[in-house]
Design goal:
By secondary structure, the protein is α/β, with parallel strands linked by helices. It folds into two domains: about 220 residues, Rossmann fold (3-Layer(aba) Sandwich); about 180 residues, Rossmann fold, CATH 3.40.50.1820. Helices cover about 30% and strands about 15% of the residues. Helix 5 crosses helix 7.
């Protein structure tokens, strides 16, 4: 029987386990546990340890308790040492092999999500010669709340500290610190764009991939207002001393209370939700995140970093499907007007969208406003910087979904269609060939800096379309034309 793999880091030895041809190391700390005096502090370097550290089980997660019904099964793991990484490497690559590295950042709207999901297992990447590092970061108010007397963007600082760990330690697992691709989905994709805009992350990665990016660039004013609401609900002052006096569960309860919206009874309240954006996430603090990521990209930030970016076709279209019976009585142009779309853009948007019926159009509008327009804006902002755009167009055969929904593409990128929970959104027989093609593109990008289709450029605006129907790769011109009226 093969011996359990051992890696020797600068902080100490870690003993993982072998799963087939993959060496797996779970729960390796990249920073000290953010508790006690380190709560609400920037991540602190981990202390060295003696002997071997067991890395055979997932580490503690920042997510607490049951996250409820989510599309990606992301379990919570109790414990204090929540700042940790999981590493998946070829079993024969533990000795300085200088392999490319993919660092994955989970999503969850900056308030949930877990690196302990089996959907993020990197076995297929290890099989193909790419090391995967799945990182954790503080979420919710602990990670992104603006607290007087505490550093802002603690969750983003955690991500940067994890990338620094990769730079310093990945050689021990056979990785090349000069070939690091940072990638993430949803809030993880938004985090990728924030990292590209952050001077503190400069030099820590050589390529980037933003999957369905949900940009969380919260203004300083909005972050201050939220902190005051959370403090008021908890009955403390809105400063570090006040929040530090609260147990973690009380802060979480106050956060949930402050973020719970009034019931969405009208289109105007939905418009408010769309206009306000995510209430928690990276804050424009003038330091770690000096300005909005899209503004930074337009001014040349990370212009030397190759970027793959795209979305599913119907991220949130299903959200309004349950109201189809009521919404059929609502004139679509009127609904879009209430949602804030000016008349001058309304007709162009309706002419270009492929969706029909009020429920589909309004759900699609949420998709386009929150995610797909971000893809188009980012591609435009990058100018001639190396950028590849894609669309995930394969519609789920599951009757309750029926579209290319949010998260559906993740197991295809990881070539992990057999993971628990995949059939719930992809059906019993998801197309293996599609996963092979998509995964191969990520491997090529991590290895060579090119995913294998033509770059985006201003005249043709080309994008790769991933759909199981096509027998050959499809590259579509003007691929995001339907959201152009929103940008």
């Amino acid at each position: 029987m093969d011996a359990a793999p051992l890696a020797v880091t600068s902080k100490g030895r870690v003993r993982g386990f072998r799963r087939g041809d993959t060496a797996v190391f779970l729960g390796i700390p990249f920073a000290q546990a953010p508790v006690g005096s380190l709560r609400f502090a920037a991540p602190a370097p981990v202390e060295p340890w003696k002997g071997e550290r067991d890395a055979s089980a997932y580490g503690a997660t920042a997510q607490r308790g049951d996250a409820g019904i989510t599309l990606i099964p992301e379990p919570s793991v109790p414990g204090e040492a929540t700042l940790n990484v999981n590493v998946f490497a070829p079993a024969d690559a533990i000795r300085d092999s200088a392999l490319p590295v993919l660092v994955w950042i989970h999503g969850g709207g900056y308030t949930s999500g877990s690196p302990a999901s089996r959907w993020y297992d990197g076995d297929a990447f290890a099989r193909d010669g790419v090391i995967v590092v799945v990182i954790s970061y503080r979420i919710g108010f602990d990670g992104f709340g603006l607290i007087d007397g505490a550093p802002a963007n603690r969750g983003l600082r955690d991500q940067i500290a994890a990338l620094e760990w990769v730079r310093d330690e990945i050689r021990a697992f056979g990785g090349d610190p000069a070939r690091v691709t940072v990638a993430g989905q949803s809030a993880g994709g938004g985090s990728v764009l924030a990292l590209m805009a952050s001077p503190a992350a400069s030099g820590l990665f050589s390529a980037a991939m933003a999957v369905s990016p949900a940009v969380g660039a919260v203004t300083h004013e909005a972050a201050e207002n939220l902190a005051r609401r959370v403090a008021a609900r908890a009955g403390v002052e809105a400063d570090r001393e006040g929040f530090a006096s609260l147990a973690e569960d009380r802060v979480l309860a106050a956060q949930k209370s402050a973020l719970t919206p009034r019931p969405v009874r009208t289109l105007s309240s939905l418009a408010t939700l769309l206009d306000d954006g995510l209430p928690l996430g990276p804050v424009i603090d003038g330091d770690v995140l000096p300005r909005h990521p899209l503004e930074a990209l337009a001014d040349g930030a990370s212009a030397d970093i190759p970027l793959v970016i795209g979305s599913t076709d119907d991220e949130f279209t299903g959200l309004t499907a349950r109201f189809a019976g009521v919404l059929r009585f609502v004139p679509v142009p009127l609904a879009l007007a209430v949602l804030g779309l000016p008349r001058s853009r309304r007709r162009a948007y309706l002419d270009r969208t492929r969706r029909r019926g009020a429920a589909a159009v309004l759900g699609g509008y949420a998709t386009d406003r929150v995610i797909r327009s971000t893809v188009l804006e980012a591609a435009r902002a990058r100018g001639t910087a190396p950028t590849w755009v894609y669309r995930f167009a394969w519609a789920s055969p599951v009757p309750s979904i029926g579209v290319a929904c949010h998260c559906l593409d993740v197991p295809f990128w990881f070539d992990h269609l057999g993971a628990d929970g995949v059939t719930a959104i992809a059906g019993p027989t998801p197309p293996v060939d599609l996963a092979t093609r998509m995964h191969g593109c990520v491997v090529a990008f991590a290895r060579d800096g090119d995913p294998g289709w033509p770059q985006w450029e201003a005249t043709t605006r080309r994008a790769r379309v991933f759909d199981a129907v096509a027998s050959a790769p499809v590259v579509e011109s003007d691929a995001y034309a339907d959201v152009a009226p929103l940008v």
